[in-house]
Amino acid sequence: MRVGVLALQGTFIEHIGILRQLGVEAPPIRLSHELDTLDGLIIPGGESTTMLRLMESFELIQPIKEMARDGLPIWGTCAGMVLLAKSVSNYEMETLGLMDTKVRRNAFGSQIDSFETDLEIPLVGEEPFHAVFIRAPIIEEAKPGVKILSCLPDGTIVAIRQNRLLACAFHPEFTDDLRFHSYFLNIVSPKLSHNPEDRILRGSQLES
Amino acid sequence: MEKGTWKVKTGLAQTLKGGVIMDVVSPEQARIAEEAGACAVMALERVPADIRAGGGVARMADPTIITAIMAAVSIPVMAKCRIGHFAEAQVLEALGIDFIDESEVLTPADESHHIWKHNFKIPFVCGCRDLGEALRRIAEGAAMIRTKGEAGTGNIVEAVRHMRAVRDGIGRLQALREEQLVAEAKALGAPLELVMEVHKTGKLPVVNFAAGGVATPADAALMMQLGAEGVFVGSGIFKSSDPATRAQAIVKATTHYQDPAILAEVSKGLGTAMPGLDIKAIPQQELLSPRGW
Prior knowledge:
Low-confidence stretches of chain B: none
Number of strands of chain A: 12
Number of helices of chain B: 13
Number of strands of chain B: 9
Low-confidence stretches of chain A: 193-208
Distance between the termini of chain A: 11 Å
Distance between the termini of chain B: 36 Å
Number of domains of chain A: 1
CATH superfamily of chain A: Class I glutamine amidotransferase (GATase) domain
CATH topology of chain A: Rossmann fold
Oligomer: heterodimer
Mean pLDDT of chain B: 97
Mean pLDDT of chain A: 92
Strand order of the largest sheet of chain A: 2-1-3-4-12-11-10
Strand content of chain B: 5-15%
Structural class of chain A: alpha/beta
Largest sheet of chain A: 7 strands, mixed
Structural class of chain B: alpha/beta
Radius of gyration of chain A: 16 Å
C-alpha cells in the first residue's frame, strides 16, 4: 500500500513516521508526477495559504481534484481539512473544494487559545482520542452526505467523513495514538478489514 | 481542555516546518508575505538591516504596528522582545500574538538572564550559536530554536557556522557513551536531562529553523540541506529590489531544497538582492549574534 503525504510545508514528516510504523509505504509528494501510483493521500497540518500557493505554482490542484473524483481516498488534517472544504467562511481563498463543507479558519482565535483535549470518536474506538488543536479550523456547515465523526462538547464539528474523504480539525500526527491513521487506512484498503467502519487495522495485518 | 501546554506550544512550531517566516514592518508588507506563501510573519518596527544602520537602543515594536499586522493576515504573527525583558513579553502575550522571539536583534535588557519562558502561555523562539546555547534556551522554555546567523547582513556565513555547530554538537553527543554524558553536559553548559535526550534521539527536542543572513533562494536551500527545518528571512526580502517575487522564490526553494533544477528555475530574474555586509568588516561590538549566552 502506498499512501502519499503532501510535503509542501507543515507536519508531513510526522504523518510519514506514523504511516511507516503501520507498515505503509509513505512517499512525500511535492510534484504532480509523484501522485502516480498512490492508493491514498494525506494533506497534513501547516499553513493552508502556504500549501495552496505551492500547489498552484507546481500544478497540483487539478491532478488531486481528478484523482479524488476517481475515488482516491484523501485525508486532510487541520490545514488539510481547510483545503478539502468547498468554502472558507472567514477568508477569501481557493480550495480543492472536494468536501461539501464550509469551514472557518483559526476558529478558536490565535495561539493563546490553542488547546489539547480528549475527544470521543466512536468510530476509531471506545477510548477517547487525545486531540491537539493548533490555531484550528472548525466545520461550520456540513451538507447531507457528510458524516460527522466527532464534535467538541459544545457541538462544534471537528471530524468528518464523506465517502472516501476524511478530515479533522486537529493533529492526530502529534500523538502516539495510531487509531485515526488506521481508520484512514481502512478507507484506503477496505478489503483488509471486514468492517471498514469500526475495525482498526494493526501494523502486522498490513504487512501480511 | 488545556491551553498553553508544552504540546500546544511545540505543536505550533511543528506546523511551521518547511516554511518561511518573513520580517515585515507594515500591514502592506505582511499581505505581500502572506500572498507569497510565508507560513508566518515577524512584526517589526524596523528590519534588522535598518536596526543595524540606525544604532541606538532597539526595543519591542509599537503595539499599534503589531496589532495592525495581526489584523492584516490570517497566518501566525510573531514579534520580538529584548533578551531578558519579560515585561515586553507580557505585553506581547496580552496582544494575543502567536509566537514571541526573544531576540538578539534587539538590545538585550538583561545580560545574565534570559526570560523564564515556562511562565507564559504562548510559545517562544530563541536564537542559538551551538548546541549548548540551544539546550539552555529549551531548558528555559523555548518551544522552538533558530540558529542566529548574523541578522541584517545578507551574508549566510554565520548562519552556516551556527547550524553546523549545532549539528556537530549533536553528532558528538551521539558518539559518546552514557558515562561520558555528565562531563559533556558540563562542557556544553546544558542540563543533563536534555543532553541525555539528544544523545538518545539524535535531534533537538524542538523544531530548529535557520535565521540571520538568508538573502536568496539558494541560501534557503543551503540551510535546509544543512538540517534546518525552515527559515527566517529578515531584511533579505523587503531590502531587495522586488520583494514579492523574491519572497515567492524563497518559499519555493525552501520546499524544493533538494531539487537543483527547480532551484535554478526559481533563482532567475529576481532583481537585485539586498546589499550584503562582510562580517569581518563589522566592528566586534556591533555584532548581534554574541548577545545572549
